[in-house]
Amino acid sequence: MTKILIVDDKEENRYVLVNFFKLFGVRSGIEIIQAKSGLEAVEKTKLEKPDLVLMDINMETPDAGLEAAKKIRRIEKIKDTKIWAVTAQAMEAYDDEMSDMEKCISAGCNKYISKPIDTVDLIKKVSEELNIEIPEKTKLRMGIK
């Protein structure tokens, strides 16, 4: 069973991602876990040990997701968990500041996914990262070769 933790304070955003993973089909072996805050994300990561965390950045505070990623990286038994930042924040670097992508990577996120999510790109990345086959029917529907 592949466990994926979806972390977002907005129910509608979690709903979209939960339904996105249905594209892999009922036989994919994916179990979806949800969290509504950075604190809950850390707790559920410790408890469930997901294979992948999709972490919103701006939740209860503007950088709650970054803080949660940093905490996860400091806990020995879960420090290697794959964390992907999923965020609408897409600011380029200004003067000496880091870009939002650089901030996410610096906080311990492995990848940076910007909203609105490119579903074709995301399904390919998840398939590759977690070694989950994309069903032929889904490939045809999404125009994936």
Proportion of residues in extended strands: 15-25%
For the largest beta-sheet, the strand count, sense and barrel status come to:
5 strands, parallel
- Describe the global form: globular
Alpha carbon gap, first and last residue: 26 Å
CATH homologous superfamily descriptor? Response regulator
Based on helices, strands and strand pairing, what is the structural class? alpha/beta
CATH architecture group name = 3-Layer(aba) Sandwich
Order of helices and strands: EHEHEHEHEHH
Count every beta strand, where a strand is a DSSP E run of 2 or more residues.
5
Portion of residues within helices: 40-55%
**Order of strands across the main sheet:** 2-1-3-4-5
CATH third-level topology: Rossmann fold
Instruction: Report the top-level CATH class.
Output: Alpha Beta
Please, how many helices? 6
Radius of gyration: 15 Å
What are the segments in which pLDDT stays under 50 over at least 5 consecutive residues? none
For the record, the count of structural domains works out to 1
Mean pLDDT across the residues is: 93
Topology:
Elements: E1 2-7, H1 11-20, E2 30-35, H2 38-48, E3 52-56, H3 64-74, E4 82-87, H4 100-107, E5 111-114, H5 119-130, H6 136-142
Parallel strand pairs: 1-2, 1-3, 3-4, 4-5
Helix pairs in contact: 2-3
Describe the structure.
The chain has one domain (2-142): Response regulator (Rossmann fold, 3-Layer(aba) Sandwich), CATH 3.40.50. It is of the alpha/beta class and 145 residues long. The chain has a five-stranded parallel beta sheet with strand order 2-1-3-4-5, with helices on both faces. It is built from six helices and five strands; from the N terminus they run βαβαβαβαβαα. Helix 2 (38-48) runs parallel beside helix 3. The model has no long low-confidence stretch (mean pLDDT 93).
